[in-house]
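sry for the spam today, last one i promise. struct tokens for design, 385 residues
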């Protein structure tokens, strides 16, 4: 207890220096928490992908449509379990700037292929029965203040309604949640049949197919069979695992991992220099005091441990405050960015990684001054004083 008290007194003897050093570490871990949560959100589609789920798109470009007839043809291929399809609607609510990710889907098969989407049975039945209704993700519902029973005007920047205009009046039949915190609930679903009957152009086409195989070991075989089946047709296909498809989609906006590594590395390298220099100066200022402690019988290794503990406490003090601030920042940002990103979560893996970096920061910045204190000669120290 005496050693901890001495560490505390040494740590707080110059409060302005303590504040500035802690603030520097605070900023580093605030950046770390926010950026790692962003990376996790962008990679959520990859991480949450089912092992046996495949995506079939047009070979030329995934924005090109596929004939609706491909649905039944794909179901007939050996090894295929469940098949569904989706169309990109290009939706927005009230203003074009208020984008809402919207898919026109076949309700029952879509929910069967995506069992991680949780819907109350009564709301599920209401959605299945009412073609002019939507199933809304929890995050996008909160962002827009939608509740079950609300009627919302949903417009498209791609399609037009056969009755004129580009707006569909739809009722919120239900709100779905995710089986896990990272499950994306920032979009809404409505009936493909209703969409197909009310759009003014587009014909019986679908955007892409999603299917599950009977076993993940059959993925490659099934994918090749699908692409072979539609080879030399007017709409050749490219089939890949959902994980590969989502990864390729994310990589279109650049190498997120490299960008994040660069930002985090520069922040930590800067903080490492600042904290390391602070600790060296602090120990140099206390040369005479360390000599007195050794004279009073404090063993060199005991002083070595005290210096390391001081450095680690400094790292954890700033780091934990930074993580706490990152959590609060992400709570607010997650709601504001619900239309653009999956849920921003400071999950356990990020926290554990951050704690590891705090410990590493404390040890690296404290080791040099601790060794200096360990080797300090009493006579030399008093002569310096």
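last one done:
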């Amino acid at each position: 207890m005496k050693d901890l008290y001495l560490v505390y007194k040494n740590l707080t003897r110059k409060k302005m220096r303590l504040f500035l050093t802690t603030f520097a570490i605070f900023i580093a871990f605030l950046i770390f928490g926010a950026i790692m949560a962003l990376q996790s959100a962008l990679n959520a589609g990859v991480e949450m992908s089912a092992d046996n789920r495949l995506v079939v798109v047009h070979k030329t470009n995934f924005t090109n449509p596929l004939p609706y007839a491909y649905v039944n043809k794909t179901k007939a291929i050996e090894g295929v379990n469940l098949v569904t399809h989706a169309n990109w609607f290009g939706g927005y609510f009230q203003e074009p700037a208020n984008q809402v990710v919207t898919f026109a889907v076949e309700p029952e098969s879509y929910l069967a292929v995506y069992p991680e989407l949780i819907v109350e049975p009564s709301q599920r039945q209401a959605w299945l029965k009412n073609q002019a209704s939507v199933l809304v993700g929890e995050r996008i519902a909160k962002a827009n203040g939608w509740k079950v029973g609300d009627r919302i005007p949903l417009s498209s920047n791609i399609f037009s309604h056969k009755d004129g205009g580009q707006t569909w009046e739809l009722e919120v039949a239900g709100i779905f949640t995710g089986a896990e915190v990272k499950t994306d609930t920032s979009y809404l679903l409505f009936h493909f049949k209703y969409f197909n009957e009310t759009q003014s152009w587009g014909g019986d086409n679908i955007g892409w197919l999603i299917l599950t195989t009977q076993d993940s070991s059959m993925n490659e075989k099934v994918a090749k069979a699908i692409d072979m089946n539609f080879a030399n047709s007017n709409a050749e296909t490219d089939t890949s695992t959902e994980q590969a498809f989502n990864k390729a989609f994310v990589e279109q906006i650049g190498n997120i991992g490299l960008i994040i590594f660069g930002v985090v590395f520069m922040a930590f390298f800067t903080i490492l220099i600042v904290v390391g220099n602070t600790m060296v100066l602090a120990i140099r200022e206390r040369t005479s005091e360390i000599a007195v402690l050794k004279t009073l019988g404090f063993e060199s290794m005991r002083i070595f441990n005290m210096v390391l503990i001081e450095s680690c406490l400094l790292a954890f003090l700033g780091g934990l405050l930074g993580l706490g601030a990152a959590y609060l920042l992400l709570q607010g940002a997650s709601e504001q960015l619900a239309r653009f990103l999956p849920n921003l979560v400071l999950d356990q893996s990020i926290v554990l990684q951050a704690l590891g970096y705090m410990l590493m920061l404390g040890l690296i910045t404290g080791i040099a001054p601790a060794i200096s204190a360990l080797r300090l000669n009493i006579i030399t120290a008093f002569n310096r004083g």
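The chain has 15 helices and 13 strands. ok im logging off now
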